[in-house]
Amino acid sequence: MKLTHLFALSSLLLPVFAAPEPPPTEVIEERNEYDDNKYFHEPGGSDQLSHYDIRHFNGEEVTYDERVDTLQHLVRSYLSVFREKNIETWIAHGTLLGWWWNGKIMPWDWDLDVQVSASTLTWLGENLNMTTHNYTSVKEDGTSETREYLLDINPNIVERIRGDGQNVIDARWIDVHNGLFIDITGLAETNPSTQPGIWSCKNFHRYRTRDLYPLRETVFENVPALVPYSFDRILTEEYSARALTKTMHEGHRWMPEQKEWIKLEQQQLDRRAHVPRSIQGEENPKSGLRNLLRVL
Questions:
Q1: Residue 24, preceding bond cis, omega within 30 degrees?
Q2: Beta bridge partners of 220
Q3: DSSP class of residue 21?
Q4: How many CB atoms lie within 10 A of CB 238?
Q5: Burial bucket for residue 237 (CB in 10 Å: 0-12, 13-18, 19+)
Q6: Is there a smaller number of Cβ atoms within 10 Å at the N or the C end of the chain?
Q7: Within 10 A of 100 (CB to CB), how many other CB atoms are there?
Q8: How far apart are CA 95 and CA 237, in angstroms?
């Protein structure tokens, strides 16, 4: 009887003293590059490659001349289509600075910036999202060329706060030929009860209603455009007064006689680099605001 009880007891203890089972094999899932919350994606890998929409990037970076040509037609098409459809939009940030100097894009820029109100942004999302638009331009030799553009609205426009910072760009106007684009951001009174009249985007840029409106009619890249009412105040607050007077930037020199930013050859840049700033001549450009006032 006792042996029977002992045998039963030992059989119950066997699982306890059995060799432990090997741990389960760890399953490592490959992370898809689009698993994050970011809507717009770029090839990445360099500063230049962060300015292409990955869906329309063909693997080859554009040349200097191709980039300038692409950006000029991007903004001309965007402003023309929006005006035809009576959609309010205005140029902003570095694009606005280019307008201030000579009514053109800065030739070293890789993308352009425009703004709309949050209500306009909502309307675009409901009515024009993922629409393509053809724009025909006339070249200097008189021939014409038609290009195609995509208007893509970020579905995260319903959130007007920065969040994780992945979706500060609300929409894009994209050249489907090479992937270069215009960034479109919306402005809204995010705290109307505590900060009435203060408009902001998801990237912490803030504007007063009286600095934005009434928008000024002007011309940019030879097409009708709108700029904020207090453009000088906005540019000074964002870039400092120095940005309105310096005549050397990103390997380009401002030529007041031509009213153009001219790209310097490497030899010229090397020679300038050896001239101490203390003995460089004072820069006093005959340009900027005085030129733009003639446009307004």
A1: no
A2: 223
A3: P
A4: 15
A5: middle
A6: N
A7: 21
A8: 15
pLDDT in tens, 148-176: 999 999 999 999 989 899 999 999 999 99
Tell me which residue has tokens 């389960």. 24
Phi/psi at 262 (5° precision): -110, 130
What angle, 0 to 180 degrees and rounded to 10, lies between the N-to-C axes of helices 231-239 and 93-102? Answer: 120
State the Cα–Cα distance between residues 221 and 75, nearest whole angstrom. 8
Structure tokens at 4: 């029977």
Condensed to tens digits (0 to 9), the pLDDT of residues 233-279 reads: 999 999 999 999 999 999 999 999 999 999 998 546 555 544 444 43
Residue 214 contacts by C-beta under 8 Å, 6 or more apart in sequence? Answer: 229
Give the DSSP per-residue string, 165-199: STT---EEEEETTT--EEEEEEEB-S-TTTSTTEE
| CA 246 distance to own-chain centroid | 24
**Residue among 184, 165, 159 at smallest CA distance from 92:** 184
pLDDT averaged over the chain?
84
- Interacting residues of 11 by C-beta distance below 8 A, sequence separation 6+: none
Task: Give the CATH number of domain 43-240.
Answer: 3.30.460
pLDDT at residue 17 greater than cutoff 80: no
Residue among 60, 172, 68 nearest 125 (CA): 172
Q: What is the pTM of this model?
A: 0.80
